Amino acid sequence: MLKVSHVSKSYDDILAVDDLSFEVKDGEIFGLLGVNGAGKTTTFRMIVGLLEKDQGRITLNGKEIDYSLTDKIGFMTEERSLLLKLSVKEQVYYYGTLKGMKKDKIEKELDYWLDRLHISEFKNKRLKELSKGNQQKVQFITSIINRPKLLILDEPFTSLDPFNVSLLVEILNEFSKAGTIVIFSSHRMEHVELFCKKLAILVHGKSVLEGDLKEIKKNYRKKNIHIQGDIVEKDFFSIKGIETIQTTSNEIIVTISDESYINSVFDIVKKKNNIIKFEVEDPSLDEIFVSIVGDVYD
After folding, report:
1. Closest C-alpha to 288, from 199, 168, 197
2. Phi and psi at residue 199, to the nearest 5°
3. How far is CA 28 from the centre of its chain?
4. Does domain 2-217 have CATH number 3.90.1150.10?
5. Can you give the residue ranges of every domain in the chain?
6. Residue 202 · residue 20 · CB < 8 Å
7. Mind listing the pLDDT tens digit of every residue in the chain (298 residues)?
8. Residue 270 carries which DSSP code?
9. Please, how many CA atoms are within 13 Å of residue 221, restricted to the half-sphere of its CB?
10. 158, 184 contact by CB (below 8 A)
11. Secondary structure of 70-115 in the HEC alphabet?
12. Strand partners, 57
């Protein structure tokens, strides 16, 4: 288990992380979310020991994280940390050696992951010759080459197309099932919803929302009602509790302030002909994120 307990970090007079606490159990996937400058990267760097915290405690399985644990940790930084004049093989060998791996083990793991990520043909290519997406894959390989027990990924899906995002998600789920603690950040909420179980949202370095994703969505008061059929926006103008009405190419989406207004909307809809859909959905994580962060900044 990873435990972050009352951790703070300042840069001169800027408080980057403010009394942050969370814990992630073995096999859990945890999303640390926030706008630029919220404190995510600083938190990651404190966890792996690249930055000294001002106060608080960070432990992995009850032990303060130090150099004796680095071989069990994988870290993928947001900015590319690749030496572009090296070949893919040389770059991965460098990281594997830093993790205390033997040459034959690095070679075996490298060949496996190159094949898994469909870039085997680039093994001896210089990194500068690869596309940004394939460079991102190589950086991902460097973070998992030692099959870590704690894997930290800062914006791992940058430059990847939907197919390769799905491929990385599949791999991360496998690590999770094997007991690895996975912590990641992403600005793409749809990526978070693909596989994240727990999350925390940071604003100005402080957690403003934390918990199980399903519970967060369930407990969020606003709901979206998707309606298809013989109906128009103006039918709902007289109903209290409606926050927005959106018309798409084939449906109307009515956002209500809480579920107590569902029956009022349904009373309008049931009077209409040819209604083929009336579906109440929890809001997307993107909607929750914008609302939570917006409320705090206001």
Report:
1. 199
2. -155, 165
3. 12
4. no
5. 2-217, 221-281
6. yes
7. 999 999 999 998 899 999 999 999 999 999 999 888 899 999 999 999 999 999 999 999 999 988 888 899 999 998 878 999 999 999 999 999 999 999 999 999 999 999 999 999 999 999 999 999 999 999 999 999 999 999 999 999 999 999 999 999 999 999 999 999 999 998 888 888 888 989 999 999 999 999 999 899 888 889 999 999 988 888 888 888 999 999 998 899 999 999 999 999 999 999 888 899 999 998 889 888 888 887 655 4
8. T
9. 10
10. no
11. HHHEEEECCCCCCCCCCEHHHHHHHHHHHCCCCHHHHHHHHHHHHH
12. 5
What gap in Å lies between CA 111 and CA 119, rounded to an integer? 10
Say which residue the tokens 């929750």 belong to: 288
The pTM is what?
Answer: 0.87
Q: CATH number of the domain at 221-281, please?
A: 3.30.70.920
* Helical segments of the chain, H only: 40-47, 88-98, 103-116, 132-144, 162-177, 189-195, 213-219, 262-269, 285-297
| Residue carrying structure tokens 């179980």 | 197
Q: Which residues, 6 or more positions from 112, have their beta carbon under 8 angstroms from its beta carbon?
A: none
User: What is the Cα–Cα distance from 243 to 255, expressed in whole angstroms?
Assistant: 6
